[in-house]
């Protein structure tokens, strides 16, 4: 008898409304990392929604079982059923129990290529693939097979598809209404390199195969790239390209850049590269970041970092607001009296004289619903080697909690029912983090030090404790290991929730009435109250705007 199994697009990451296309992925090859791990990251951004830590248990499925597809968005008119596979892997967040991770960013591309009749949006495609793929290469092949059979229902999308051995970047776009399948390209990131995605198409020219792999149905250049067989012919058919095959650029055909894609998206990639490479050389790309494509029309697809990149490096990269570079959001009057890197106005706005203005759009932003750093390690058992450092809300404002990929339940604070975007709860990681963050946003320079103290305290503890936990776990049977790591993940989450409760209460007392009481190690201590100073750029702007009004007489 046939059985019915239902998957929601948000079963792994429950989104309570459709997110904006404002996500960021950073990707690190195993020889570019400090310890030989493969890593990728994800900030899931968009105002007005909360996330949760998704969990999908592994399981056997009888012959004939069907999978019901329900994409996020408006309710579907018809029932959509696809064939289930005999066995599905466990998934926690966006990593499965074979240490395969898939993260994404949206770049839209050619609007006419959206196929509303396709069954699979990008999140559903990711979720189903993670349940079925044991390697990154297998994941790419499964994604191709799924969209060929059931159709793709999203706009231009980038995926980082990683496992414990290698990292791939993949770009995909539909073929328009009435056409199944998708146009896509996947390239292997060199093991000694890093790369990034931030809502723009980035792959241009690529190695081309002489023929299609008939078994898989797409083209393969061994160890370098894979792509849909009609990637160039379809562009010709649609009038996007007319040159020679050897000169074909995926980005130019399917996701051409404009100033917004450069400044709001590629600038985040540039800043990430600059943090791990010669800053002077990366600054030579500033004409591109400023939209002067006649001088420079692209960033490198990937770079070899000056020194190996650690997990902690990536955590801090996810908190970037362009500090210390030409786009520094804390350095001018728009940062306000407290030198804040956050902006409340829309990305595009107008001045009083109708001048069209824009604000920067960094990796770290207040509208993040969740953030994660995925680490995959081939020298450890899968249950131990795969870790997602996870939390809800803005990466800048949270401590990353280690969540092991083989756990058999998730911590209560990350459960969907405890993270309602319309109902505050002290049992919610989303709301505890937002409680703290929303006190700090308006008084950044005065209060951020208290958060960084708590953040560093927790992340130092986790890093040190993990060494002992993982050594102990490796000596256990698989069953005992899973139970042990599940308990440790819950313990780590509980420690974070208690520390953030303490931090929130400290902030309201220490900074009451916009003065500061002295504190140490998260506790108030005896001493004088002080008044935090305004940012120098703001003081100068006040002086310029008000003339002698506030100048003390001699």
Describe the structure.
It contains 13 helices and 25 strands. With 554 residues, it is α+β, with helices and mostly antiparallel strands. The strands form 7 sheets. Strands 11-12-13-14-18-17-16 form a 7-stranded antiparallel beta sheet, with helices on one face. A 6-stranded antiparallel beta sheet has the order 15-2-3-21-22-23. The relative contact order is 0.11.
Instruction: Kindly report how far apart the N and C termini lie.
Output: 93 Å
Low-confidence runs: 1-20
Biggest sheet strand line-up: 11-12-13-14-18-17-16
Count of beta strands: 25
Main beta sheet: 7 strands, antiparallel
Mean pLDDT: 93
Structural class category: alpha+beta
Backbone CA Rg = 24 Å
Shape assignment: globular
How many H/I helices?
13
Overview in brief:
By secondary structure, the chain is of the alpha+beta class. The chain has helices at residues 122-132, 136-150, 233-237, 250-254, 259-275, 279-283, 286-289, 311-317, 382-385, 429-440, 444-473, 478-510, 536-546, and strands at residues 4-8, 25-28, 38-45, 55-56, 59-60, 66-70, 81-83, 87-88, 91-92, 95-96, 101-108, 156-162, 167-173, 183-188, 194-197, 212-213, 218-221, 225-228, 348-350, 356-358, 368-376, 387-392, 401-404, 519-520, 523-524.
């Amino acid at each position: 008898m046939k059985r019915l199994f239902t998957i929601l697009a948000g079963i792994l990451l429950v989104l309570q409304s459709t997110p904006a296309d404002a996500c960021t992925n950073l990707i690190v090859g195993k020889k570019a990392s400090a310890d030989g791990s493969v890593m990728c990251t994800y900030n899931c951004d968009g105002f007005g929604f909360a996330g949760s830590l998704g969990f999908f248990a592994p399981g056997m499925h009888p012959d004939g079982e069907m999978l019901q597809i329900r994409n996020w968005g408006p309710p579907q008119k018809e029932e959509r059923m696809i064939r289930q596979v005999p066995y599905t892997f466990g998934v926690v967040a966006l990593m499965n129990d074979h240490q395969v991770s898939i993260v994404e960013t949206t770049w839209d591309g050619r609007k006419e290529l959206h196929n509303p009749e396709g069954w699979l949006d990008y999140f559903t495609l990711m979720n189903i693939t993670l349940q079925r793929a044991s390697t990154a290469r297998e994941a790419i092949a499964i994604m191709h097979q799924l969209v060929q059979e059931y159709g793709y229902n999203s706009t231009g999308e980038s995926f980082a598809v990683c496992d414990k051995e290698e990292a791939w970047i993949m770009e995909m776009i539909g073929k328009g209404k009435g056409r199944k399948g998708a146009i896509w390209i996947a390239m292997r990131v060199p093991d000694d390199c890093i790369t990034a995605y931030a809502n723009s198409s980035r792959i241009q020219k690529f190695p081309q195969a002489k023929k299609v792999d008939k078994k898989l149905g797409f083209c393969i250049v061994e160890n370098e790239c894979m792509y849909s067989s009609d990637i160039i012919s379809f562009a010709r058919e649609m009038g996007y390209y007319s040159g020679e095959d050897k000169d074909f650029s995926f980005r130019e055909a399917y996701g051409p850049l404009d100033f917004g894609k450069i400044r709001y998206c590629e600038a985040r990639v540039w800043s990430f590269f600059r943090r791990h490479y010669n800053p002077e050389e990366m600054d030579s790309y500033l004409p591109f970041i400023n939209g002067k494509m006649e001088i420079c029309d692209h960033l490198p697809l990937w770079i070899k970092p000056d020194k190996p990149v650690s997990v902690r490096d990536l955590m801090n990269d996810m908190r970037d607001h362009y500090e210390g570079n030409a786009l520094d959001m804390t350095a001018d009057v728009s940062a306000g009296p407290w030198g804040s890197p956050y902006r409340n106005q829309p990305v595009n706005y107008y001045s009083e004289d109708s001048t069209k203005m824009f604000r920067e759009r960094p990796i770290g932003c207040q509208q993040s619903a969740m953030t994660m750093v995925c680490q995959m390690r081939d020298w450890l058992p899968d249950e131990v080697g795969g870790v997602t450092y996870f939390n809800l809300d803005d990466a800048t404002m949270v401590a990353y909690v280690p969540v092991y990929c083989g756990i058999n339940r998730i911590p209560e604070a990350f459960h969907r029912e405890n993270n309602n975007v319309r109902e505050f709860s002290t049992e919610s990681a989303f709301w505890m983090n937002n409680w703290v963050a929303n006190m700090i946003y308006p008084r950044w320079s005065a209060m951020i030090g208290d958060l960084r103290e708590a953040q560093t305290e927790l992340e130092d503890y986790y890093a040190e404790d993990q060494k002992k936990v993982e050594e102990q776990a490796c000596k256990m049977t698989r069953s005992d290991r899973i139970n042990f790591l599940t308990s440790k993940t819950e313990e780590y989450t509980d420690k974070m929730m208690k520390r953030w409760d303490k931090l929130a209460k400290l902030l309201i007392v220490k900074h009451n009435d916009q003065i500061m009481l002295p504190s140490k190690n998260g506790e108030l201590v005896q001493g004088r109250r002080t008044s935090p100073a305004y940012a120098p750029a703001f003081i100068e702007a006040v002086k310029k705007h008000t003339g002698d009004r506030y100048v003390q007489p001699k």
